[in-house]
Design goal:
The chain has 6 helices and 7 strands, in the order βααααβββαβαββ. The protein has 174 residues and is of the alpha+beta class.
Length: 174
């Protein structure tokens, strides 16, 4: 049976969303730590002020959230790799995750599109990301949105005794 599209609201996240962001990250990490790139135990050590700071990075950095009935259920963000002009043509897409309860409803695609649109509106030519594998749904999403494979970092993360590669993907503004 195919799920219906979720009715959700999209908006930019800020410091006041840190608690909800932390709760969502913990839910997603508990479900499967590989896409998050860290264990639940590691996630639980992250203090709330670090999320407040992360969600307060100055423009043009931005994080976006999807809300269902006031609950944060997904996010996607873009961050500039450097304050120097020589790197302002590109961003890193990060923090793309959706609650397991709301997956396969178009939320991730909408969030990623919003983050990319924000980056392009500020003059960015290229959006880069790393996806830890295996994560077939994420890879399929990014490929369908025009991201191309451009490299691989072997043994990028270690969850327990298992190493996972990081696939590097990139998309140029059309």
């Amino acid at each position: 049976m195919k799920k219906k599209k979720a009715a959700f609201q999209l908006r930019q996240l800020g410091a006041d969303d840190a608690q909800a962001f932390s709760i969502l990250r913990r839910e997603v990490t508990a479900d499967n730590p590989v896409p998050m790139g860290l264990t639940l135990e590691e996630e639980l050590t992250r203090p709330l002020p670090s999320f407040r700071e992360q969600l307060s990075y100055p423009e043009p950095n931005a994080a976006f959230g999807a809300f269902v009935a006031g609950e944060l259920v997904g996010s996607a963000a873009v961050a500039w790799p450097s304050k120097f002009a020589s790197s302002r043509h590109k961003v890193t897409l990060w923090g793309v995750f959706v609650s397991p309860r709301y997956r396969r409803l178009g939320i991730a695609r909408t969030l990623v599109s919003r983050a990319i649109d924000h980056a392009h509106a500020t003059g960015v030519l290229r959006v880069n990301l790393t996806v830890f594998v295996p994560n077939a749904p994420a890879v399929k999403l990014y490929e369908s949105m025009g991201f191309e494979h451009c490299g691989m970092e072997p043994e990028s993360i270690r969850i327990g005794d298992i190493y996972h590669d990081g696939w590097l993907m990139s998309r140029r503004n059309r």
